[in-house]
C-alpha cells in the first residue's frame, strides 16, 4: 500500500444538541460550546480546509455491544422518549451524568465518528486524524455511564480495530486530567491494549478517588504490565512535567510495545485554565505530545476528544493538536524546562512499579519512593472563611477570564508564519531525482558568493578544495533557513566535520542563540562550545578523550549491531531530554565517517528532533549510502518513516552508560531528571 498522507477531521454539529436541562453544579461545565468553539477556532486558523472532511455516522448496536452490556444499551435507548423528570431520575443513578432526549443519538454519533476515524486511518485514506465528539467516553464502563460519559468511544474503537483489522497491539494514550477508569476496567486483563493515563490524583483526594488509579495498578492476569497509571499528586503540573512523563515513562514503553495503531483519549482539562484540572500546561505542549506519538505505528494516530472545560484553552489546544497532525512546524514549548519534584516522584514510582514487565526498565536501578514529598499530604484544610457557592463562581469566572486574556496574547507570541518551502536541497551528486518528491531544489552559491559571505568563518577550517566547493550548497540552504524561506534542508559534504564547523559559526554569527548539533560518527574538528551558543552531542563508537567533555560538549558512545536498533532508548532517555532542556533555535544533524548507528535510529532522531527549533534542521551527510540519504530526506519532508519491529531493548551496559551521563548532566539539563534519590533539590 502506498504511504498514506493527510489528516481527517470529523465534526457533526448534531453532537451539540446533548445538553443539561436542569441545575447541576457538577455537570454544568460539559456544554455544547466545547465542540462549536473548538471547530470555530479551527476555522479561524484555516485548519479545517486543510483536513480531509470525514462524515460521522451512528455507531451500530453491535459495535456498542463490543464493550457494553445490553442492559446498559437498553437503558440508554429508553431515555429518548422520557420527559425531563424521568431523565433527571435516570441520570441520578450515575456518578456525574445527565441525559437529554437526544443524548442517545449523540452518543451513537460519538461512537460512529470515532470508528469512521479508525477506518479512514486503517484503510490508508489518511495518515491520522481527529474526531470532535460529545458526549466523551473514557469514564464509561461496561454497565454504567459515569463522569459525563455514556459509551466508551475509544474502548469501542480499540475492540473494533482488533476485530476488523486483526490488530494485535493498540496503544491508548489518555492525556485527559481525569483517570479513564472505565477504559482501565475494560482492558485490565488484555495484553493487546496498552493503556496509559496520567491524572490529577492528590493521594486519592481527587475524583474519581479510586485506589486503582494509583501507579501500582499495572493490570491483571495476562494484562499485567499493560496498564500504566501516572498519578499527579499536586496541581499545577506544566509543560515540562508532561514532557518528562513522555520521555521517561510512556515513550520507552510504547516503543518497546510497538503498537500498530495509537488512539488518544484527548482531554484538554489537563491544560491551563481548566477549572477541573488546575494544571498549567499551555496549548503548544499538546502539539509536542502529538508529534512525539506520530513516531509510533507508522504514524497511524487517531485523536478523540474527551474533556476540556475552559473554552479558550480547549480550542487553542485542539488547534495545536491538529497543526501537529498536519505536520506544520510547531512552536517552541514555553516555560522553564525542569520537571517539578512531585512529578519526578510520580515518574520514579511508576517506573519502579513497571520494572518487572518492561525489558527496557529491567536494568535500571529503580526503587519506590514512599511519600518522601516535601510536604506530606495532610487531610484537606477546613476553610476558616467559608465563601458561598455564588462567591466561588465569581472568583472562578475572574480567573477564567484572566487565563483567556493570557492565552490570546500567548498564542500571538508563539505562532509564526510557516516558511513556504519545507525541505530544500541543491543539485549535487545525491541528485534531486533520487529524493522524494516534496524536496525542493535550490541553487547553490558559487565560489565568489561563498567567499564574500563566509570567508571569515572557514579560513582555518577548510583545508581541501572539495570542502570549499561543498560549502556552496550548505550555505545556500542555511541562508534560506535563516531567512525563513525554507524550514529544513539536506546537503552532502565530503568532509562533514569541516562543513558543520562552518555552519555553526555562520548560524551563531547571524543571530541564532542556541544551536544544537548532533553529530553521528567521528568528529575530526571540534567546534568551540565555550559561549553556550552551541551544544554538541557526538554519537560515536570510540571513547572520546574525557577531558573535553562539558555541559556543552557531550560524547555519547553508542554502537548498534546491524538490524538491532536499540538507539531509541538513548534518543528518548537522553538526547530528547537534553535537547528540550536546551531549547535550540536551530538544529544541525550531521552524519560523518564511521557512523555507529543504523538508518532506523538516524531516521528516528530526525523524526523526533523536528518537534524542536520550529523544525529548523540542517542535515549534513558525508555518508554516500543512498538509502540513508533518502530516509533522511523523507523524514525531513514529513513522510512517516516505517521502523516497525526494528527496536530492541538496550543491554545492561548501555543502560549503565546512559545512567552515568544522566547523573553527570541532570543538574545542567534538568529534563533528564527521573528519580529523586540522588539529591535533586526541591524546586
Ligand atoms: N464530586 C471528563 O473530563 N466530576 N469527565 C465529579 C463529583 C466529574 C470529567 C465530581 C468530572 C467528569 C470526560
Ligand atoms: Zn477529564
Name of the CATH architecture of the largest domain: 3-Layer(aba) Sandwich
Q: How much β-strand is present in the residues?
A: 5-15%
Sheet with most strands:
8 strands, parallel
How would the global form be characterised?
A: globular
GO biological process, one term: negative regulation of transcription by RNA polymerase II
InterPro entries: HDACs (IPR000286), His_deacetylse_dom (IPR023801), His_deacetylse_dom_sf (IPR037138), Ureohydrolase_dom_sf (IPR023696)
Family: Belongs to the histone deacetylase family. HD type 2 subfamily.
Subcellular location: Nucleus
Describe the structure.
The protein is α/β, with parallel strands linked by helices. It has two domains: 363 residues, Arginase, Chain A; 159 residues, 3-Layer(aba) Sandwich (Arginase, Chain A). Helix 9 packs parallel to helix 10. The C terminus is likely disordered. It binds N-{4-[(3-aminopropyl)amino]butyl}acetamide (Q9C) and zinc ion. Zinc ion binds next to loops. It comes from Anas platyrhynchos platyrhynchos (Northern mallard). InterPro entries: HDACs (IPR000286), His_deacetylse_dom (IPR023801), His_deacetylse_dom_sf (IPR037138), Ureohydrolase_dom_sf (IPR023696). This is Histone deacetylase 10. It is found in: Nucleus.
Could you provide a short overview of the structure?
Its main location: nucleus. GO terms for molecular function: histone deacetylase activity; histone deacetylase binding; hydrolase activity. The protein is 38% helix and 13% strand.
Amino acid at each position: 500500500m502506498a504511504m498514506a498522507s493527510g489528516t481527517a477531521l470529523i465534526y457533526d454539529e448534531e453532537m451539540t444538541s446533548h445538553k443539561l436541562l436542569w441545575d447541576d453544579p457538577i455537570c454544568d461545565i460539559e456544554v455544547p460550546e466545547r465542540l462549536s468553539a473548538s471547530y470555530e477556532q479551527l476555522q479561524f486558523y484555516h485548519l479545517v480546509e486543510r483536513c480531509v472532511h470525514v462524515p460521522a455516522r451512528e455507531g451500530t448496536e453491535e459495535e456498542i455491544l463490543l464493550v457494553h452490556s445490553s442492559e446498559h444499551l437498553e437503558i440508554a435507548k429508553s431515555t429518548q422518549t422520557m420527559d425531563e423528570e424521568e431523565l433527571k431520575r435516570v441520570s441520578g443513578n450515575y456518578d456525574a451524568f445527565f441525559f437529554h432526549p437526544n443524548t442517545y443519538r449523540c452518543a451513537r454519533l460519538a461512537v460512529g465518528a470515532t470508528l469512521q476515524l479508525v477506518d479512514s486511518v486503517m484503510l490508508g485514506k489518511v495518515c491520522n486524524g481527529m474526531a470532535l465528539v460529545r458526549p466523551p467516553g473514557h469514564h464509561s464502563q461496561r454497565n454504567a455511564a459515569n463522569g459525563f460519559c455514556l459509551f466508551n468511544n475509544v474502548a469501542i474503537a480499540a475492540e473494533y480495530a482488533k476485530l476488523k483489522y486483526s490488530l494485535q497491539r493498540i496503544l491508548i494514550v489518555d492525556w485527559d486530567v481525569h483517570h479513564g477508569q472505565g477504559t482501565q476496567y475494560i482492558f485490565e486483563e488484555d495484553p493487546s491494549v496498552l493503556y496509559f493515563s496520567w491524572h490529577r490524583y492528590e493521594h486519592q483526594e481527587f475524583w474519581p478517588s479510586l485506589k486503582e488509579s494509583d501507579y501500582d495498578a499495572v493490570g491483571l492476569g495476562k494484562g499485567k504490565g499493560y496498564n500504566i497509571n501516572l498519578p499527579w499528586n499536586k496541581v499545577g503540573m506544566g509543560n515540562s512535567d508532561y514532557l518528562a512523563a513522555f520521555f521517561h515513562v510512556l515513550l520507552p514503553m510504547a516503543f518497546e510495545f510497538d503498537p500498530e495503531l495509537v488512539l488518544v483519549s484527548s482531554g484538554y482539562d489537563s491544560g491551563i485554565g481548566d477549572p477541573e484540572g488546575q494544571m498549567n500546561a499551555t496549548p503548544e505542549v499538546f502539539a509536542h505530545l502529538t508529534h512525539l506519538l506520530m513516531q509510533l505505528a507508522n504514524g497511524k494516530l487517531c485523536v478523540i476528544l474527551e474533556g476540556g472545560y475552559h473554552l479558550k484553552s480547549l480550542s487553542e489546544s485542539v488547534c495545536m493538536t491538529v497543526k501537529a497532525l498536519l505536520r506544520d512546524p510547531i512552536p517552541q514549548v514555553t516555560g522553564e524546562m525542569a520537571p517539578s519534584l512531585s512529578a519526578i516522584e510520580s515518574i520514579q514510582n511508576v517506573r519502579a512499579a513497571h520494572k518487572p514487565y518492561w525489558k527496557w526498565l529491567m536494568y535500571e536501578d529503580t526503587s519506590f519512593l514512599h511519600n518522601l514529598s516535601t510536604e506530606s499530604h495532610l487531610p484537606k484544610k477546613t476553610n476558616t472563611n467559608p465563601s458561598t457557592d455564588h462567591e466561588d463562581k465569581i472568583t472562578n469566572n475572574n480567573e477564567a477570564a484572566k487565563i483567556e486574556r493570557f492565552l490570546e496574547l500567548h498564542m500571538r507570541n508563539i505562532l509564526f508564519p510557516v516558511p513556504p518551502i519545507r525541505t530544500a536541497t541543491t543539485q549535487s551528486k545525491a541528485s534531486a531525482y533520487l529524493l522524494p518528491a516534496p524536496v525542493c531544489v535550490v541553487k547553490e552559491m558559487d565560489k565568489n558568493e561563498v567567499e564574500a559571505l563566509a570567508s571569515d568563518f572557514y579560513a582555518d577550517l577548510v583545508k581541501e578544495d572539495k570542502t570549499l566547493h561543498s560549502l556552496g550548497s550548505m550555505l545556500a540552504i542555511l541562508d534560506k533557513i535563516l531567512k525563513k524561506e525554507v524550514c529544513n534542508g539536506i546537503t552532502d559534504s565530503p568532509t562533514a566535520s569541516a562543513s558543520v564547523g562552518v555552519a555553526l559559526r555562520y548560524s551563531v554569527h547571524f543571530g541564532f542563540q542556541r544551536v544544537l548539533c548532533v553529530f553521528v560518527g567521528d568528529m575530526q574538528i571540534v567546534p568551540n562550545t565555550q559561549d553556550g551558543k552551541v551544544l554538541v552531542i557526538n554519537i560515536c563508537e570510540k571513547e572520546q578523550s574525557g577531558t573535553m567533555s562539558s555541559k556543552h560538549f557531550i560524547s555519547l558512545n553508542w554502537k548498534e549491531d546491524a538490524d538491532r536498533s536499540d538507539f531509541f532508548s538513548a534518543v528518548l532517555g537522553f538526547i530528547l531530554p537534553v535537547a528540550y532542556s536546551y531549547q535550540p533555535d536551530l538544529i544541525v544533524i550531521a552524519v560523518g565517517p564511521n557512523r555507529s548507528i543504523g538508518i532506523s535510529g538516524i531516521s528516528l532522531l530526525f523524526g523526533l528532533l523536528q518537534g524542536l527549533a520550529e523544525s529548523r534542521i540542517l542535515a549534513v551527510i558525508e555518508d554516500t549510502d543512498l538509502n540513508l540519504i533518502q530516509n533522511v530526506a523523507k523524514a525531513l519532508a514529513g513522510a512517516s518513516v516505517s521502523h516497525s519491529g526494528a527496536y530492541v531493548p538496550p543491554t545492561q551496559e548501555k543502560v549503565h552508560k546512559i545512567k552515568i551521563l544522566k547523573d553527570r548532566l541532570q543538574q545542567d539539563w534538568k529534563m533528564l531528571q527521573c528519580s529523586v534519590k540522588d539529591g535533586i533539590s526541591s524546586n
